[in-house]
Amino acid sequence: MLGGEKSPLNLFYYYKTILNMTFEHYVKICNKILKKHPKYANLPVIAASDDEGNNYFRVLFTPGEVVVDDPESNRPEIVNPEEREPNAICIN
Question: Which residues touch 33 (CB under 8 Å, ≥6 apart)?
């Protein structure tokens, strides 16, 4: 386990304590990992399909601003971006 049970590098700890990931918090965690392990800078990025790790996939695209119908939903739908300001960051 990276960094101990309550470390910012322990993603399972963060999943249990941060149920609504913000872009700022996501970037902070990435920066902490990179600062502690600079050699990880060129590792591929993957994402899990759920909290149990049933499926993993490569993150293929750069992050982008999007407009979704309900940013608090576990399955938000992308809506017309011309209607309002972006309210989420899409990582893939």
Answer: 2, 8, 9, 40
